[in-house]
Amino acid sequence: QMQLQESGPGLVKPSETLSLTCTVSGGSIISSSYYWGWVRQPPGKGLEWIGSIYYTGSTYYNPSLKSRVTISVDTSKIQFSLRLTSVTAADTAVYYCARRASGSGTPLGAFDIWGQGTMVTVSS
Amino acid sequence: QSALTQPASVSGSPGQSITISCTGTSSDVGGYNYVSWYQHHPGKAPKLMIYEVSNRPSGVSNRFSASKSGNTASLTISGLQTDDEADYYCSSYTSSSTYVFGTGTKVTVL
């Protein structure tokens, strides 16, 4: 059973860079059937898609965050990461990593496996 | 990209049926059959309930059903149970090769 686990600092200062890692267990990140991505939920608000990456490194980002976001993948470590630069209080949120299905025989376009989420607070 | 529009809250008594709408545009919900629905209990990971408009993953109760008409997708929960009390989100693929979530609906079991 594949599992995803987020890790990273819970507190980031304004204007600095938020960095999170998602570790994949119980399966391979190298798959033609899935993308790997990030979703966040600010306190009291809804879910927001941040972006996704394919194991080859191809990326897709939310246009509203594109200038500040980088998602990368390390297939050897079975991890993928999120970097969000120049953070403000508006970036305070629970950050989830999630697997998105994209291949035949999978729930196409759906986020079928999620991590438990990690709270990141932006504050000085 | 703008979030898909969902009602802020929907409520029903145990055993009743409720329907949650998810309205987008022809560039997302109306243009693709990659609409999915998620159940989210606070403090837990979201759970996939419906994919490709109307398909249920293995293990999801058949009390959950969904459909789409034009730019609006809908999720119906029949035989409402107390465990169904949660936040529900729709999601859609978009013409920009991105994904967008709905604003979320809080389901209350009276």
Can you tell me about this structure?
The complex is a heterodimer of chains A (124) and B (110). Chain A is built from no helices and 11 strands. Chain A has strands at residues 3-7, 11-12, 18-25, 34-41, 48-53, 59-61, 69-74, 79-84, 93-101, 111-114, 118-122. The mean pLDDT of chain A is 95. Chain B is an all-beta fold and 110 residues long. Chain B is built from no helices and 9 strands. Chain B has strands at residues 9-12, 18-23, 35-40, 47-50, 64-69, 72-77, 86-93, 99-101, 105-109. In chain B, the strands form 2 sheets. In chain B, strands 1, 3, 4, 7, 8 and 9 form a 6-stranded mixed sheet that branches. A 3-stranded antiparallel sheet of chain B has the order 2-6-5, with no helix packed on it. In chain B, strand 3 (35-40) and strand 4 form a beta hairpin. The relative contact order of chain B is 0.34. The mean pLDDT of chain B is 97. The A-B interface holds A 39, 46-49, 52, 60-64, 96, 98, 100-101, 107-112, 114-117 and B 1, 3, 32, 34-36, 38, 40, 44-48, 51-52, 55, 57, 89, 91-93, 96-104.
